[in-house]
Amino acid sequence: MTGAAIAASGVSVVIGGRAIVDDVSIEVRAGELLALVGPNGAGKSTLLSVLSGDVRPTRGSVLIAGRDIRSLRQLELARLRSVLTQENQVSFPFTVSEVVEMGRSPWAKTAERGNDPAAIAAAVRATDIGHLGERRYTSLSGGEKARVSLARVLAQAAGAVLLDEPTAALDLRHQEDVMRTARTLAAEGRAVVVVVHDLSLAGAYADRVALIADGRLESTGTPRDVLTAERVTRVYGLPVEVTLAANRPVILPVRGTFGA
Fold it and tell me: 241 and 254 in contact (C-beta within 8 Å)?
C-alpha cells in the first residue's frame, strides 16, 4: 500500500453566489491525521468533497499524489483515495459481508486482487462487525450501518482516507474505536482527513486541526495551538473552557447553574 498526500491551493466553491468554501489552501500529509472542525454550515463537508475529487472547485486546484485531481479517471482516483460520506447508504438488501467486499472493487483485475481476503478481514476487525457478516445491511441500526460503511472504506486500502463525520451515529466506545483506527491508518503512512464535531475527540487524536468558519480556514496547527478557549468561543459563539489531559485539549462548554 502506497502513501498519498493531498494539497489544495486557493480552492473556492461558489453556489448561488455564495462562497461555501472561500480561498482555502491546505495540505494533508502522508502519515498524519488531520481533523476538520467548525460550526454547522462552515463548509467542512464541502471542503472534504473538494479534497476527495467528488466536488470540483469553482476556483483553485487540488493535487493528489502530485497529480491534478481533475486529470484522474474515477478508477484511478478510487485507487488513490477512499471516502466515507454522510449519505453513505446502501438501498438493496446486500449482506454486510457483500457491502464490505465492495470496497475491493477498484482492485479487480489487478495484482492487488490477491490481497482481498486480508484487507477485508482487517477492515472487519477494525470496525468490530465480525458478528454481523450475514445480516442484511438494510436491517441494521444506524450505528451498525455506519461501522459497516467504514469497513467498506477501509477495505479499499487507499493511500488517502477521507471520513465525513464517521463518529456521528456511534456510541462512546465505537467513537473511540473509529478515532483509534484513524490514528492507526496514519501510523501506517496514509493521509487521513476526518470531519468531526466533537472538538475533544479532534484534540485527543489529531496530529493537526483545521478550524473552518464561514467557508474560510480560520486556523490550522496542532490541537493545542488551534483549540484555544478564546478562538473556540469566538468561532462557535459559546463560552468554553479548555483543560489538558495527557497534554491534549479537552473542550467544555461553560454552563450556568441549574435550579432544582
Answer: yes
* Contact assessment for residue 83 and residue 159, using Cβ atoms and an 8 Å cutoff: no
Specify the CATH number for the domain of residue 53.
Answer: 3.40.50.300
pLDDT computed for residue 86 by the predictor = 83
Whether 120 contacts 155, CB under 8 Å: yes
- Domain count for the chain, please give it: 1
- 143's enclosing H/E stretch is helix 142-155
Question: Hey, what amino acid is at 260?
Answer: A
Whether 181 shows a pLDDT value over 80: the answer reads: yes
Task: Note whether residue 259 is domain-resident.
Answer: no
Residue written as cell 465525513? 164
Cβ(226)–Cβ(220) below 8 Å:
yes
Residue 248, beta-bridge partner list: 245
Asked whether residue 161 is assigned to any structural domain, the reply reads yes
- pLDDT tens by residue, 59-107: 999 999 999 999 999 999 999 999 999 876 676 789 999 999 999 999 9
Counting DSSP H helices and E strands in the chain, the numbers are: 9, 12
Q: What is the pTM of this model?
A: 0.91
Residue 227 lies in a domain: yes
Task: Output the nine-digit C-alpha cell for 145.
Answer: 450501518
How far apart, in whole angstroms, are the C-alpha atoms of residue 68 and residue 63?
5
Q: Residue 198: which domain range?
A: 6-253
Q: What's the pLDDT tens digit per position in 217-256?
A: 999 999 999 999 999 999 999 999 999 999 999 999 998 7
209 found inside a domain: yes
